[in-house]
Hints:
This protein is α+β, with helices and mostly antiparallel strands. The chain has helices at about 25-30, 60-75, 95-110, 125-130, 150-165, 195-200, 205-215, 245-250, 260-270, 305-320, 375-385, 410-420, 425-430, 485-495; strands at about 10-15, 35-40, 50-55, 85-90, 115-120, 140-145, 185-190, 220-225, 230-235, 240, 275-285, 330-345, 365-375, 400-410, 450, 455, 460-470. The protein has two domains: about 1-215 and about 470-495, 3-Layer(aba) Sandwich (Rossmann fold), CATH 3.40.50.10330; about 225-315 and about 325-465, Tumour Suppressor Smad4, CATH 2.60.200. The strands form three sheets. Strands 8, 9, 10, 11, 12, 13, 14, 15, 16 and 17 form a ten-stranded antiparallel sheet that branches. The protein has a four-stranded parallel sheet with strand order 5-4-6-7, sandwiched between helices. The longest helix is centred in the N-terminal third of the chain and has 19 residues, at about 150-165. Ligand LY3EYVUO binds next to α8 and α11.
Amino acid sequence: MDSKETSIIAVEETEFNKKQRNIGRWQKMAKLHAFTVHYVKKARNHRWRCSDATFWSVDEHLCNQWTQALKELLEMQKSRPKQLLVYINPYGGKRQGKRIYEQKVAPLFSLASISTDVVITEHANHAKDNLFEVNIYKYDGVVCVGGDGMFSEVMHGLIGRMQKDSGIDQNNPKASLVQCNIRIGIIPAGSTDCICYSTVGISDPVTSALHIIVGDCQPLDVSSVHHNNTFLKYSVSLLGYGFYGDILKDSEKKRWMGPMRYDYSGFKTFLSHHYYEGTIAYQPAKHTHGSPRDQESCRTGCYICKQSGKQLAEQNKERGLKHEEGEEEWKVIKGKFLAINAVNMSCACPRSPKGLSPAAHLADGSADLILVRKCSRFDFLRYLVRHTNQDDQFDFPFVDVYRVKCFQFTSKLSEDNESNVMDIGKKRFGQFCRDHPACCCNIVNSTWNCDGETLDSSAIEVRVHCQLIKLFARGIEEDCKDEAAHSQSSIEQLL
Length: 495
Ligand SMILES: Nc1ncnc2c1ncn2[C@@H]1O[C@H](COP(=O)(O)OP(=O)(O)OP(=O)(O)O)[C@@H](O)[C@H]1O
Ligand SMILES: CCCCCCCCCCCCC/C=C/[C@@H](O)[C@H](CO)NC(C)=O
Ligand SMILES: [Ca+2]
């Protein structure tokens, strides 16, 4: 945190006697007055904690003046939320959402004088549907307690509500969507918590609660996914076909296993080593300055994301004056793929601390399209291992990566179904694997994994909407070796 920026959470008058301290003769001479400042203390690995410091004086007036001045300073922080709508998924991750909120988060919100309306969800889509009914405009933010799936619900509710209120048809894949200025806070209590980890740098409920309290704001790109002019879903983290789609499909049947289900299904999917044929067409993201092979990652105050934000503001100003840009060139790739991963952000998570595309940006209006072509099991394992270490994940002859603003995918199977009259044998028994006719392995489509939810269609059209939503976060901060000491000194400077 910048030392000029206040990291105070709350200021309270304190009864001095309760804080028994050895202050020698002062205590005997006069009645002491005190106030306590609760502030953010930065610890290692992007973790934030709430700490406090008590100040005392024999001068009651001086004490009151300080308390008043600090409270006024806090009042002036207009970006801080005062009223929040909170959705808790009691069944996400290890089913600890309610406990985490009540024990770790609610006391901090109350300390920071934030009032809350809390909804404990009773079924899937409860939060999403509810966001179409409530008066969302009275809130400074919506908080979800759960995992990526719960975040996805809240995001769909908010984006959908904004488009409905503005008369925008979500089924139109070319529609300019209305930005959503009501920020979303994520209290991680899921299985992967990739969105929280990639935007804060850690999956920790207290840290996330403190980012909400100090009123952080991080814009985020959102991809819209359509099939045949029908809206399917939005995505902010991973849109994965092949490996990650198959893991998700298998793991959904094993929700009872909790977060372990991904390891079990991951191992199974790895052993099955399925590849899928299809065609990808994409438009490169020429507007952004970065590349997926950059060494630098997106960090707090990222220059590339700021530039994209400026371009977006210009476009919004010019909209109406200018006609839609002419069609840019499409690149087409046909092939056999073990995995097709499109990521709007790095997708860093505790399992993969750098993520699937370490140089992807949170708010640059682009996604990184990663194509993992058919290769041996051993090579695929080498690729997967690089999700977890520092080595370059794209430095393989069977892996390609492109920074794109939109793409389309059609599986070979659906191309064939659309264009050919299938013979009776195929219709009855399914299509047989052309490479191994003797093995009779059935070719089926994979499933798209869209931020942890499956999509019903394999043929999709995807478009990145630059900075469509905002989070209570600030992106991952640059490593600071002496963060704890720095935070302490910033509070001392302030007082
Ligand atoms: N009360 C509920 N009962 C059943 N399902 C719910 C309920 N509330 C929300 N859900 C659904 O549960 C799904 C999964 O929840 P969540 O994302 O919180 O946990 P997770 O899947 O374990 O974690 P992750 O998404 O990080 O892998 C969400 O898609 C959401 O729609
Ligand atoms: C033998 C080594 C295997 C290493 C495997 C590493 C696995 C890394 C997993 C990274 C997934 C990150 C993408 C996040 C996706 C989320 O949207 C989704 C929902 O929470 N999670 C999953 C697992 O699909
Ligand atoms: Ca992006």
